[in-house]
Each structure stands twice: as C-alpha cells, then as structure tokens.
Design a protein that fits this description.
Blueprint lengths: L1 H57 L2 E4 L4 E4 L3 H8 L1 H32 L6 H8 L1 H4 L2 H11 L6 H10 L9 H29 L3 H9 L4 H30 L2 H6 L11 H11 L3 H33 L1
Antiparallel strand pairs: 1-2
C-alpha cells in the first residue's frame, strides 16, 4: 500500500514538474512574441496614435508659428468651422463627390467585371491593361485631365464641338467642375473595383448559375437574383473602402482644379492643407482634421451596419 502511495506521489510530482516546465516554455514563447511585436506596436503608436492625439490637442488652441501664438481658446476653432462658408461648401462637395464617385465606380466596376469574366481571346492581356489607369499617379492623371477639360483645346471640348458646335465651360463652371473631378476619379479608380469584383464573381458556385438556367432564368434575372446577393458583402465592403478614400482624397483635386472655382471643388483634405501649409493656422487646421475624422467615422459605422445586415441575409 505504501509502495502505491509512493508511486502516486512520484507521478504527481513529475506531473507538476512537467506542467511547470510547460508553463515556463509557454511564457518564454509569449515574451519572445511580445518582444518581436513591440517595435511594430511602438512604431504604430508613434506614427498614428500620437499624431491623432496631438491633432486633437491642437484643435483647442490658436497655434500659428508665424505669429508665434499658442493660446488655449477652447471650442472657438470648432465654432469658426461650423460658421465658415468655405467649410459648408467643402462638405457639400465632399458629399456630392463621394456619392457620385462611389455609385459610378460600383456600377461600372460590376459591369466591367462581368465583361472580364467572359471567355474571349487575350483575356489575360485585357485584364492587365484594365488596371493601367489605377496604377498611374493621381497627380499625373489630374494634370492630364486639366488639359483634357481645357475650354479652348481640350480633347473633351473638341469632340463636343465637332458634334454640336458648343464648348462647355468645364473647370470654371461650378457644376461642370464638380462633375469633371468626379468623372476623373471614376476613370482612375474603377479598374481596381472591377478586378476585385471579378474575383468575387469567380468565387460564386457554378451550381447556382446552372440551377438558374434550368429554372428558366435569363442572364439579367440570374444577375439580380444570384450574382448581386452573393456579391453584396463584397460590394458593401468595397463601397465602404471607396467612400472613405473619397472623403480623404486630395491629389486629384490639387492637380485638376486646386479647389476652384472658388471652393466649389475643395474637399476637406484640401481645405486642411490650405489652412495648415498655406496659412500656417495649425489650430484651425487641426479642428478641420477632427471634423474630417468624424465624417470618416460616420461612413465607417454606417457601412459596417450595412455589411452586418448583408452577411445576415446570406446566412
């Protein structure tokens, strides 16, 4: 009996020893993992969290290095932002630009993806060429579009004039300038959505399409009843991504219209650039940046809610 107890005690001791060794090895692996990840986390904190916090801090100050001022003014920058007509014009165009650009990119991206998903010769080459506008620099595209929409010798006006004898004012008329910026952005960025939607189309089970054909559904009916519901989570995800990027867009406006005429095509990011680096009004620019953050947050939250609903419908 005593021998059995001794064996049992020895087994327990060995088990505890093995357990402690296992815990020590696990702790060492966790410490090594944390040590390897720590530089990235610290770098991310230094380049993202700290600038965000400092921007929020500066938004409560009248901070201008030219005047050497750093005076706490509370919510005055935000009150000025609310009452600033330039900000209202900018928000109006930001909403217009985001809605028009995202809508056209999603619709055209789906159409191009459908075409690229068909069987035809040189399909791989066409898919690669499709991405060229997206791969080009936005500054280059904006500068080229400035020439294309030129009133006297632009390509667009030349084609319109040959057909109708009329030359529209693209970059000096408020409505036309806004559409010119939106259409330039659509031309550049739609190819990326088309390739992503093409990947989504190829992930739809072929059995669903065969079943729709057997039930007598045509292509358009099958597209509405099968393709769109299956792609809806991807469509919403890309719409969120595209909308956030549209709100933050700077380069196309900078190269194409410089925010003109007046502030008709000025986006929030461009207005922040003007206040921060042209006027050196860092406090007010920081308040504008926090307002821009609020716009992005609203887009993200609304998009996330729609995305959850689309996933729920698929389940």
């Amino acid at each position: 009996m005593s021998g059995s107890n001794s064996t049992f005690a020895a087994d327990q001791t060995a088990s505890r020893t093995v357990s402690r060794s296992h815990h020590r090895a696990t702790a060492r692996r966790l410490l090594l993992a944390y040590a390897l990840v720590a530089p990235v986390v610290l770098w991310r904190l230094a380049t993202s969290v700290y600038p965000f916090g400092y921007t929020a801090y500066l938004s409560f100050f009248d901070h201008n290095p030219m005047r050497r001022s750093h005076e706490y003014i509370g919510l005055d920058n935000y009150r000025t932002m609310i009452n600033d007509p330039d900000v209202r014009n900018t928000i109006t165009f930001t909403i217009f630009f985001t809605v028009v650009s995202v809508t056209l990119q999603v619709v055209l991206g789906l159409g191009i993806a459908q075409l690229l998903n068909q069987q035809f010769s040189l399909r791989g080459f066409v898919r690669a060429v499709n991405l060229l506008p997206w791969a080009m620099s936005a500054i280059v595209i904006g500068t080229a579009a400035n020439w294309i929409f030129n009133y006297d010798y632009g390509l667009i006006n030349d084609l319109i004039w040959r057909v109708s004898g009329f030359r529209p004012l693209w970059l000096t008329d408020v409505t036309n300038a806004r559409f010119a910026v939106a259409l330039t952005d659509v031309w550049k960025n739609t190819p990326l959505l088309a390739i992503i939607f093409l990947g989504g189309l190829q992930g739809i089970p072929a059995e669903l399409s065969h079943a729709a054909k057997i039930d007598g559904a045509g292509r358009f009916r099958a597209f509405l009843s099968i393709t769109i519901p299956q792609l809806m989570p991807l469509i919403i995800s890309m719409a969120i991504f595209t909308a956030v990027y549209r709100v933050l867009t700077f380069d196309i406006v900078y190269a194409l219209t410089a925010g003109g005429p007046g502030t008709a095509t000025s986006l929030m990011s461009y207005l922040i650039y003007l206040q921060a680096f042209r006027v050196l009004n860092f406090g007010y620019a920081s308040a504008l940046a926090m307002g821009l953050f609020g716009m992005v947050l609203v887009v993200g939250v609304v998009g996330f809610m729609l995305l959850r609903r689309s996933w729920a419908k698929l389940d």
